[in-house]
Amino acid sequence: MHLRGVRDRPHRPLEAENALKGTKLSDSDISKATELAVAGVNPPSDSRGSSSYRREVMKRLLRNTLEEMRREG
User: Fold this and answer.
1) How far, in Å, CA of 67 to CA of 50, rounded?
2) Fewest CB within 10 angstroms: 6, 47, 48, 52, which?
3) What is the tens place of the pLDDT at every residue in 13-58?
4) Nearest residue to 67 (alpha-carbon basis) of 5, 4, 20
């Protein structure tokens, strides 16, 4: 898992990755991982979005991706 546009360089949320290892990607697993992924990031604000907006978008995109992975098995 790598996140871009949330720091000055790509961010790899290892705690979130580790939290998902060995899980079946349940809703609670996904929620925990998305919270862990955004915990250590403070994305920059600019003309395209505030820091809090970018953090929320990151959580939603990550959640959507993990739910898609669960559906596709």
Assistant:
1) 26
2) 47
3) 999 999 999 999 999 999 999 999 999 788 889 898 999 999 999 9
4) 20
Task: Answer whether 41's CB lies under 8 Å from 1's CB.
Answer: no
Length of the chain: 73
d(CA 53, CA 43): 9
In which element (H, E) is residue 3 found? none
First to last CA, the chain: 17
DSSP E strands in 7-70: the ranges are none
